[in-house]
Amino acid sequence: MNKYYITFGQDHTHRVPNHTLDKDCVAVIEAVDYMAARKKAFELFEAKWCFLYEEEKIDDKFMSYFPRGLINV
Question: Engineered SS bond to 4: which of 8, 17, 34, 37, CB 3.0-4.6 Å?
Answer without folding.
Answer: 37
